[in-house]
Amino acid sequence: MSATVYALPSIVVFVTAAVLIVVGALGVLAVRNPVHAALSLILTLFGVAVAFIAQSADFLAAVQVIVYAGAIVVIFLFVIMFLGVGRSRHDHVEPLVGQRPLAALGVAVTVGGLIALLASSHWVTGATSASGSSLVKGTGNVRQLGTAVFTTYLYAFEATAALLVIAVIGAVVLARRERVTEEAE
Amino acid sequence: MIAGADPLFAHGVTGVVILIVLIKVVVGFAVWMGAVTMMIWFERKAISDMQSRIGPQRWGPFGLLQTLADGIKLFFKEDLVPAEADRFVFKLAPYLSLVPALVTFAIVPLGGTLHVAGHAVQLQVANPPMGILVMLAMSGVSVYGVMLAGWSSGSKYPMISSVRASAQMISYEAALGITVVTVILVSHSLTTHGIVLAQGQGVWHWNVIRLGVVPFIIFWVAITAELNRPPFDVVEAESELVGGFNTEYSSIRFALFYMAEFMNTITMSAIIVTLFFGGPAGWVPPVAHLRWVFPILWFLAKTGLFAFCYVWFRAALPRLRYDQVMDLGWKRLIPLSLGWMLIVAGFLVAPGWGFVMAATVLLASVVLAIALERGASRATGPEAVLEPVGRRPLPEERLRSLTDREEG
User: Is there a domain that residue B357 lies in?
Assistant: First the structure.
């Protein structure tokens, strides 16, 4: 499969998803109001979900919307709204001196690495890929995903789960610091 | 490409297929809008009957056109946007409430399969491969409508309401998702069509019985909380919050929120029927021409029953306190749904594993009960429990800083 011919609908879907992703990502950076920035982030996440569906990764698309758009950005918004970050004008005071050049450097290294990876490897996704070809059309790919997660990548999966539990317990411990003196007396 | 599990697209997408899809969308939308106006009328009439009032009676026979009259009135009212509002988000929020309700209804199977012009047509607007996950995704998205409406109003009480709403809806989503997993486990399918087919062989195959009644009850309670319907309507507790997240809304935008609430009620009744009561399954007469009508009637009857139950809840049950809502969600429903899912999964592997799982869950629930008991008996109150890390602003200060206009 050296030269894949793409049909018009796939091109339309891809362009729509790409525009959503890029516009949303730029919006996150450019918009002043944090709530609007979070909304732009949702736009990006939906674009990524559309791209997933175009690659026949239906389950991933659904989980993308449920977890990221449905839970994580809601928590972002919750914090932004509850702490009222939007109306303060302290953003020209830099808390970490010299973070901007360091951030620029990090971005340059990451993007350079990604481009090098993309240039050096051959990427096949979707129905034409190694795992996709065994898909029965229209059944979704939950079975393959589940098998992969619970056999090949079991340790990574369990490590992630443990990490999340640690994060939750850490947050609870930090937030609920009980008065020790009363317990001791 | 995005063929999904729909046999309609099995032989390629032709003009006829596109026409069938368009007809399905239009008919689905029209039927559903009619159902929404009927639902609003039915809720008002049923509640007024329960409360010994007359209810709507002026417009049309039995007041059936009341909703239409209300709609026309709201449409011609002045559309106000508060000066403190974030205009763009304020105008966006009603649609974020409305669209998820619409999308969720698209995956509900209304009847069996129809054969039109050589094509097998499933009587549901769409049958995507991720199926029931669309419902979970859309209930996640619908949080934004309520949340952003409250925030963008630039007013204190809608803000409190939206903070409550987002916390409540996220909390109950977990129990909801785990219960849906239980259904998917026995159905071997993510699609709503597959879930309904798996329950097609009779009443004893309906998930409400096959799974034990517990998942159904968890799902019903969680979905009621997700809808912000009574008795979980702390989001719009009139006595505390003026009107809730939509206090500052007027005219057609208020009507959109109002419609979204009733749309969601119908949609979620239909989802309950689909997941636990076999959807359109039921007795069908052995007459060839009636074979496609009866499933639809069965579906409508079951959905109507649950819609009535929602109305009944509203008239009969007092509102829960906010901490009770949170306790029920986190301390009861999530552990219960998780334990029940493990037991069901165990029995699906082998009966022996099922009993092992049941014993494990029993042990875990005893540990959990002891932990909750010890947690509850600890000293509480503002003096004893919390010593904040750093000084946190009081809720009043936080709200004031959010809502007061910045001078200069």
Answer: no
